[in-house]
Amino acid sequence: MRAFAIALTCVTTALAADQVDLGVVYRIKSEAFDHSKVMEHLEYLSDVYGPRLTASPEFTEAADWAVQRLREYGLVNVHMEKWGPFGRSWSLQKFSVEMIRPRYSLLAAWPLAWSGTTNGPLRGEPILAPAPRNDRQQSDADLDRYIEKYKGKLRGRIVLISEPLHNIATLESAPELRRYTDAELHDLAAAPDPLDKILIDPKDLVIPDDPEERARFNASLPPNLQDQLRAKREAFNARRNQFFLEEGALALVQADQRARDALTFSEGADPKKPAPPPIFVVTSEHYNRITRLLDTKIKVELEVNLQARSAEGAEPYNLVGEIPGNAKKDEVVMLGAHFDSWHSGTGATDNGAGSAVMLEVVRILKALNLKMDRTVRIALWSGEEQGLLGSKAYVKEHFGDPRTMQVTAAHAALSGYFNLDNGSGKIRGVYLQSNDAMRPLFEQWLQPFHDLGATTVSIRNTGGTDHLSFDAVGLPGFQFIQDPLDYSTVTHHSSMDVYDHAIPADLMQAAAIIASVVYDAATRPEMLPRKPLPPPQDPSLATK
Q1: How far is residue 333's CA from residue 106's CA, in Å, rounded to a whole number?
Q2: Do 308 and 384 share a structural domain?
Q3: How is residue 174 annotated by DSSP?
């Protein structure tokens, strides 16, 4: 009984030491809601500087602006930190896809980043030749059969590489601006059922087509398996693109499988590989018209034009700045978001919103002149869209290599990292990333924001963004739960990823919550609790 009383006293003492300063919370809320600059930040990042493709001139211009803002707010050690190698830069100048025959029509289209250029308008007849895609579980053998079938048939043609998506009008449309229901948050707070650990071969994985299901699927995979899948997909696509280059195809056109939401979906070619032929995404409605005309043997002629500036040896950068700590200034609390975006919209919700919020967080902390024991460091990442490259390089340089699990001295001094990158929805809680020791802390830290909807503390892991780079070397890294809104259905990687789809009240709420959480982490007596170090991803290198 006495032992139980001692243990209870220790727990009570620990919790008491983490009591939230409601006076500080009040000041943070007042600054975040009454003097907000978060939408001003987002307007500059999206409307003024536009898309921020990694290593592009547009990224650099936006980064220069953000660095200046951080310095104006009083942060120190503000700099752009180089990492690499990355590959080619790519900056879009002009493009179009037009139907010339049988009737003129300007098609709703967008090029893929890092595509090759046309060097002026090119005209050619389209040919329907749906190509295998590795992200749809098609194999090298499928590609072999495709190459054998179309070898010698594509020179001077514009190749339609997607299967048409028919009966678009009958497809169920997703709701606009979806928010989590109480029932969904309740389910999210519940721990998933334990499963037996099994070895998974990447070729056996079935990747979902639905964007939200695919995001959950990716989150369930360990980082090394995600990297294997990405490497396999990149190699597959490089081989496919090389075939089209050797065959002399004028351009490639693929259908936008989310065209029913009136958007253009945009991924990208590989900046590390030779430029493929010009690749365009066309809305399914316009794509289907072309395929129907071909089916009826009516002659179709298209004209494509793509002008882009590209250069080898591009130097990518992360943005970093600090608010110096006091009594424990050698210990660090980090917050961040990825600064890069795709090129078809203006990168507003992915992830201008997260970057704008984090800029606002440090502005709030400096404007209130809050005294924090630990140093607070903001990092805005590049290369996230190509596989978390910027944050992985930063973590490897400063904290440790997940392949070997050899860590640096700075590893012991990082208390934790907080990330925002799921669109512009308000924060509804946080993913613990299996770190149960963080549960009582987050429950206390979020309690003053329950009336703003932030109630859920989930033991679950979530994937796809930069907190994973920290988690991979055993550092506390967390992504907040956000309302989905229209992120997965409309704005994500699309030409509709623009300022108009961001909700000011949601971003102000997110800035207030993260500013409070960062303050709490930077002032609590102890560092944040950690999970045990994970095993090295490559055991053969562990002792080298």
Answers
A1: 51
A2: no
A3: P
**Contact between residue 104 and residue 98 where contact means Cβ atoms under 8 Å apart:** yes
What pLDDT digit, counting tens, does each position of 466-481 carry?
999 999 999 999 999 9
pTM (global) more than 0.70 = yes
Is residue 32 exposed (0-12), middle (13-18) or buried (19+ Cβ within 10 Å)? buried
The pair of structure tokens assigned to 105 is 């029509």
Report whether 185 contacts 193 (CB < 8 A).
no
- Report whether 63 contacts 56 (CB < 8 A): no
Do 417 and 290 have their domain in common?
no
Report the DSSP beta bridge partners of residue 287.
Answer: none
Q: CA–CA separation, 149 vs 92, rounded Å?
A: 34
Q: What is the CATH number of the domain that holds 432?
A: 3.40.630.10
Helix (H) / strand (E) element for 241: namely helix 223-247
Same domain, 380 and 281: no
Pair (472, 422) in one structural domain: yes
> How crowded is the C-beta side of 326, counted as CA atoms within 13 Å?
10
Phi, psi angles (nearest 5°) of residue 91:
-135, 115
Distance between CA atoms of residues 515 and 328, nearest Å: 19
Q: Average pLDDT, stretch 56-84?
A: 98
At 256, give phi and psi (nearest 5°). -85, 110
Q: Which residue has the tokens 């012991």?
A: 412
Instruction: Report how far apart, in Å, the C-alpha atoms of 116 and of each of 104, 237, 251 are.
Output: 25, 14, 9
Confidence of residue 196 (pLDDT cuts 50, 70, 90): low
Q: Give the helix/strand (H/E) hosting 242.
A: helix 223-247
Name every residue whose Cβ is closer than 8 Å to that of residue 233 and which is 6 or more positions away in sequence.
Answer: 134, 135
One domain for residues 319 and 307: no
- Own/partner contacts of 443-452, CB < 8 Å, gap of 24 or more, are 444/15, 444/18, 444/19, 444/20, 444/520, 445/20, 445/516, 445/517, 445/520, 446/513, 446/517, 447/20, 448/20, 448/22, 448/25, 448/516, 449/509, 449/512, 449/513, 449/516, 452/426, 452/509, 452/512, 452/513
Distance CA 58, CA 351 (A): 15
Contact status, residue 335 vs residue 514, Cβ threshold 8 Å: yes
Domain boundary among 281, 312, 343: 312
Residue with tokens 């250069």: 311
The whole domain housing 281 covers 88-184+198-312
Helix, coil or strand: residue 419: strand
Angstrom distance (rounded) from CA 243 to CA 5: 72
Per-residue model confidence as pLDDT tens digits over 393-445? 999 999 999 999 999 999 999 999 999 999 999 999 999 999 999 999 999 99
Name the strand (E) or helix (H) holding 94: strand 87-101
